[in-house]
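Q: My labmate handed me this sequence with no annotations at all. I'd like to see what the chain might look like in three dimensions before we decide whether it's worth expressing. Could you predict it?
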Amino acid sequence: MSDNYFRFILEEREDEFNFEKNKSKIDIRFNRVAFIFFVFFSIFLIYSIHLIHLGSRKSDINSSKEFKNPELIKRANIIDRNGTFLAKTVSSIDIGINPTEIIDQKKLILNLKLIFPKKNFDLIKKKIDKKKFFWLEKKISEENYELIMKLGDKSIKPKENIIRLYPQKNLFSHIIGQIDEDNIGISGLEKSKDKQLKKNDAPIRLSVDKDIQFLIREELIKYNKIFKTLGSAAVLMNVNNGEVISIVSLPDFDPNERISITDKNYINRATKGVYELGSVFKTFTLAAAINSKKVEPQTEFKDLKKSIKCGKNFISEYDDKIPTNLTAEEILIRSGNIGSVRIGQSVGIENYKKFLNDLKLIKSIKFDIEEVGVPLHFDWGKCKLATVSYGHGITTTIIQLANAYSILANGGYEINPTLIITDNNFKRNLILREDVTKKIIPIMRKIVTSKEGTASLANVKGYEVGGKTGTAQKSSIGGYSKNKINTFASIFPISNPKYSLVVMLDEPKTNSEYIYNYRDGSGIKYKGTPFNTAGWTSVEVAGQIIEKIGPILATKYKEIN
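A: Here is what I predict for the chain of 561 residues:
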């Protein structure tokens, strides 16, 4: 090669660039400058591409700003009264595969089998062969995420999502509710408090207690099997401020998995279900008579017939053994139908109607969730007054029943049921005469303790339980079916009322093998359900619940305002 030329060869290992230049001596200086500029430009270009690549990888992994609805990240948590998470917004990573970027398919599948040994890789191979992107794993665990990212395969595409998690699963499903894919609440508190949950970072603190809720739900599940019920519900309420400590409806669902909210089997029986509840209304009949100064507990009613005619229909006594001469107190204790009619007649239509309205029993109520039933409208008349007096032909919800019994127990002060912690500084409005509670509560205690009462199975030693049973036939097209709604509305402790507990069983059945153990310390046992009444079904469940939750309530909530 001549002296006028030289050959310069640059070999770049990574990108295999080859440069070969032959220049004259006149061009050497210019080419040296150009070469140095070219080298620096190449280095800058490679570095820039590398930064862009890193940036794209980072956005794949941390794509919380790119998910479908960025507002979801702002959704506040929901906690129980003790700070336990009931609804929480958390991060979740999905792993996808882009088959067009796979370099070594066999190696990738082998490594994935080690990480996901239970997956169907025949199916995964088919998806890879289609050369279309697919999701390998949704909501991957942190451990598996680290393992799969260590593979370093560029076909693996991670995406971070922000999801709504319900840690307690079924436990509070009916009241917490759900959101849809667009971060819009579609049921429960997620719907009714949707704007607040999106706007504020502070969690919404509820009045419910996870531990109490768990125990009550477990008992309802157990007795649903024993009595083969269609469903059940229970409400535990603070009688002084309306705070709901527990509210259970079965069947329930896991809001982490269930999407549809239209299935009638999953109706909230505690708030949405509207039922005839039977003799639990007899307490209101006597309370209304006392409130209107028409009757006192010791007022005597003589010549009580076994059956009376009202219009075209007959009203009969459920038990022929009930005496014909009873005091008002004894009528309630024995749950007499005819006696209750007589008491209701003494109150009158307008007084009784106003009384039930004041207790928020026969109209819709405001509650923290939208799934609240509306009691069926009816026209008042003499016969309607008669049937309503013993709980026939009138409907309400379980939450309204618990609220009404709470008012009877707290001295007659108006309260509204709530799922939100109250400040206890609200002005209390007296809606009943002050002596109503003093006169009606002791009778409720006798319903549990006396031989003539219908709720002896709820006589839990040490807790002073009082209450009233209700057994009602379920309405059907054209009349009533043989299926029943069995209810027990209770107050405890009677000496200083703090809690109301309502237990409802939907279509219970008798159980010939079940062993009843009386809880009054007597040691009495009884095998088999003799009658399909509230006294042998819902009372038994309530007694078991109070026995379980009583010690917790006594220690956890020493002061109930």
